[in-house]
Amino acid sequence: MAVGERAIHGLALADVPEFVGLEAELEVRLSPAALLARLDLILAAAERTLRQLPEAHMADLVPSRDRSWRQLGYHVFVIAEAFLAATKGAELSYESLAVTPPDEVRTGADVAAYGADVRRRLGNWSYPGGEGTVIPTYYGEQTLHQVLERTTWHAAQHVRQLESLLEGLGIEPDRALTAADLEGLPLPSEIWEG
Hints:
The chain has seven helices and four strands. The chain has a two-stranded antiparallel sheet. By secondary structure, it is mostly helical. The protein has helices at about 15-20, 30-50, 70-85, 95, 110-125, 145-170, 180, and strands at about 1-5, 5, 135, 140-145. The chain is globular and about 50 Å long. It has a single domain (about 30-180), classed as Four Helix Bundle (Hemerythrin (Met), subunit A).
């Protein structure tokens, strides 16, 4: 977003009203504990969906992006891994989210196995509490809570996309994400936005 000479990424939704000079009350954010539980649920859905994706389609490109199904699935878990790295002092950069899968990670099952490891490490991490922790990101300094929220809804949006790809093949996703699973996350209304 740009206003005159001022600009922001707009990725931190709470910053947008203030930037454009509006007073707005955003919906109540989910607690860190609720976000962590939701992120685990979302990553588990990604694992299930990836195991269902036919190998023959893993190199296909997703709608409106120069990204393969394989890259999209891998990206879901890279989002969570970049979050974990940021909690240990690494900057959350655009490059840290643009990691491509290694050559040996070819199939949906391969990506899901990588995802299971990320989920395990995320399950061993605990939120330190308080709002004092600030993380440098490519869209400005953000609180740990804000970065966790973005990590959760960002991963959820891409899992919705993976499920959509599977449905496009006439395959029903195994325990697809529900409206209740996504409630409280500031997701775009369209699957292929963002």
